[in-house]
């Protein structure tokens, strides 16, 4: 990276022409963009995991209060419930 930057800087008419090489060189040294991206991914993963956990806990709490509601939501026993209601 350093060599690419140095080559660009030596051949460029103005230093602003080498901004991409400078960026690449600093990223290679510090890994700041890579670290920021990894942190963003980790935060989003944690957020989604917490949301899923909260949703599962809410469904579990609801199923404790009304056992049929959880099964109906999953549509596992939906047809059976319809048949039973039709018989009544």
UniProtKB/TrEMBL annotation:
<dbReference type="Pfam" id="PF10200">
    <property type="entry name" value="Ndufs5"/>
</dbReference>
<protein>
    <recommendedName>
        <fullName>NADH dehydrogenase [ubiquinone] iron-sulfur protein 5</fullName>
    </recommendedName>
</protein>
<comment type="similarity">
    <text>Belongs to the complex I NDUFS5 subunit family.</text>
</comment>
<keyword id="KW-0472">Membrane</keyword>
<keyword id="KW-0249">Electron transport</keyword>
<dbReference type="GO" id="GO:0005743">
    <property type="term" value="C:mitochondrial inner membrane"/>
</dbReference>
<keyword id="KW-0679">Respiratory chain</keyword>
<dbReference type="InterPro" id="IPR019342">
    <property type="entry name" value="NADH_UbQ_OxRdtase_FeS-su5"/>
</dbReference>
<keyword id="KW-0999">Mitochondrion inner membrane</keyword>
<comment type="subunit">
    <text>Mammalian complex I is composed of 45 different subunits. This is a component of the iron-sulfur (IP) fragment of the enzyme.</text>
</comment>
<keyword id="KW-0813">Transport</keyword>
<keyword id="KW-0496">Mitochondrion</keyword>
<keyword id="KW-1015">Disulfide bond</keyword>
<comment type="function">
    <text>Accessory subunit of the mitochondrial membrane respiratory chain NADH dehydrogenase (Complex I), that is believed not to be involved in catalysis. Complex I functions in the transfer of electrons from NADH to the respiratory chain. The immediate electron acceptor for the enzyme is believed to be ubiquinone.</text>
</comment>
<dbReference type="GO" id="GO:0005758">
    <property type="term" value="C:mitochondrial intermembrane space"/>
</dbReference>
<dbReference type="GO" id="GO:0032981">
    <property type="term" value="P:mitochondrial respiratory chain complex I assembly"/>
</dbReference>
């Amino acid at each position: 990276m350093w060599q690419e930057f140095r080559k660009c800087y030596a051949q460029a008419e103005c230093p602003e022409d080498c901004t991409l090489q400078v960026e690449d060189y600093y990223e290679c040294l510090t890994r700041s963009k890579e670290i920021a991206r990894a942190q963003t991914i980790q935060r989003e993963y944690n957020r989604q995991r917490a949301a899923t956990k909260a949703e599962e806990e809410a469904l579990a709490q609801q199923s404790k209060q009304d056992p049929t509601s959880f099964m109906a939501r999953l549509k596992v026993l939906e047809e059976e419930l319809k048949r039973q209601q039709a018989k009544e």
